Amino acid sequence: MVKGLNAVMKKDILVMFSSPIYYIVSFIFTLICGYFFYSNVMYFNLLSIQASSDPFLSEMLNLSDMVIKPFFGNIIIITLLFIPLLTMRIFSEEKRQGTIELLFTYPISDWGCLLGKYFAVMISYVGMLLWTLPLVVLMGIIGSPDWGIVLVAYIGILLAGMGFSAFGVFCSSLTENQIISAVLTFGGLLLIWAIGWMKRLGGEIVGKVLEYISMTTHIESFSIGVLDSRDILYFLIFCSFWLYFTKKVLEQRYIKR
Amino acid sequence: MIQVIDVTKYYGQRLAVEGVDFEVGERRVVGLLGPNGAGKTTILRILTCYLTPSSGRVVVSGYDSEKEPLKIREKIGFMPENVPLYGELSVWQFLGFVADSKGINPRYKRQEISKVISLCGLERLERRLIRHLSKGQRQRVGLAQALLGDPPILILDEPTAGLDPAQVVEVRELIKGLGRDKTVILSTHILPEASQVCQEVIILNNGRVVAKGTLTELGKRMEDSDQISLLFKLDRDLQNLEWLRDDPMILGLTQCGKHLYEIQIKPSEDGIKKLVKKIVDAGIGILELRQKEFSLEEIFVKLVVYGDDTSYKGEMVR
Which of A84, A98, B299, B300 has its C-alpha lying 20 to 30 A from B35's C-alpha? Predict the structure, then answer.
């Protein structure tokens, strides 16, 4: 069923890592994450100085609320902006160059090709995330963060990245233009992200559906250190849904008429 | 080995190929010929299981293309036209990926890659990025990836396009050699190439097979193939031989060289005997007397350009 997964994954990782785009995207991603981390820490530092003369503020102040939660919240938003840049070429470029025809003449199954490409994106994404680890280590040096919250936040970021990537891969399968693919992914993800904000405009049922679909509903729990199986399920369903439709797009070439 | 049974393919409302029917046996080099838009690429895409026919069946090595496409792809090495490749990879990395895709045992992977690299003359290019290769070099990489894994069937779409004359000769010789133990389907618009390399040809026009068979069979099936050609040397002015032009046995007269002339004669044993005697009596030296053979170009032009020419009596499908 997934014949050729390893071959495609290895090839796509090679292609991804030999492209300057990946390094530029990773660098900018790390830079922005670093900036947000720095600003959160500096704000925390400022409040700490004030707290030395204010016992009430001193009780309120903690590293998790002031640095960890906002930092990981920011990473998810940055991810939403950067994932389209990782997924945009995954099928679009193959279509533009015509290599997709060559690819599908090898004994590779559609699922093997699709999942190989998807895992390649995920590995690149994890590679990008690794650059945020020094910031977390720094957090451990300057204070004593709740490592449980940090771990859950990373799981949340990973799951969100999985969902974003699945949608990005789907958008990439629709067009041979990388820019269109990236814009479609970004626009679509933004819509799915914020659709819950419209819950009050519809009726009760529509509101609940919109709220469930919206990603913000499911990401909050991770940023406060809660690992909710319903939210994990949401992201797994989200991934499967878009990967399934990507497979359907690939199968279009089998349409008899 | 390959059976294409009544295959029709539509792209939306547009008909690409209709009722295509042919068989290719083992260890043959078969040319797929036709003008642009004749349906050659569609047929190749169906054979490689990239596309599914709208109706009809394709059976390769006993496997049905719709039921077991992966089994068929394991048997096929395909080189597409213009050879789309991954420019970011080196030749070795790309062939490594192809080897993995074709499921070549990792133990023999290096050996297999080295074999095709040497077969296609890529030794000095193996570490070079594909995007830095010339068109001819890319063409050779395309051929190497098709040969990798030693598939019993090779499907080559315009394999010599972009090669320099020396490489063209090399590749043609290579294909000829491969045809000794593989089935090769070669799509080309270079007719001399098909004449030199292919044992059989399938001519497509407007999505249909208009002729198929060996070159000799196709030539013989042309009505005019019964023509006799007589070559002679004439030192005197031909104007003095008006009787030769006016002879009812003679169909045509062409000058081939300064003193060389060729006449086409109706195929009649008595008539030929009388004409030859007449020519010899007139003191003209006959150099050659043979049955006229049609070149692939002539057959192609007759079938494709003058497709409505009813003189063709071969396996034409209308």
Answer: A98
Write a three-state SS string for B128-155: CEHHHCCHHHHHHHHHHHHHCCCCCEEE
Sequential DSSP letters for A125-142: HHHHHHTTHHHHHHHHHH
Identity of the residue numbered B150: D
CB nearest A101 (choices: B71, B80, B97):
B80
State which amino acid sits at residue B130.
I
* CB-closest option in A3, A105, A109 to B78: A105
Residue A256: predicted pLDDT: 66
Query: How would you classify residue B73: left for phi > 0, otherwise alpha for psi between -120 and 50, otherwise beta?
Result: alpha
Full-model pTM: 0.82
Instruction: Kindly determine whether residue A104 and residue B50, on different chains, have CB atoms separated by under 8 Å.
Output: yes
Among A104, A170, A120, residue whose Cα is nearest residue A16: A120
Q: Is B137 on the interface with A (CB under 8 A)?
A: no
Chain centroid, CA A86 distance in Å: 10
Task: Indicate the helix (H) or strand (E) that contains B74.
Answer: helix B69-75
Q: Give chain A's length.
A: 257
- For chain A, what is the domain count? 1
Residue A168 belongs to domain spanning: 5-254
Whether B52 and A7 lie within 8 Å, measured CB to CB: no
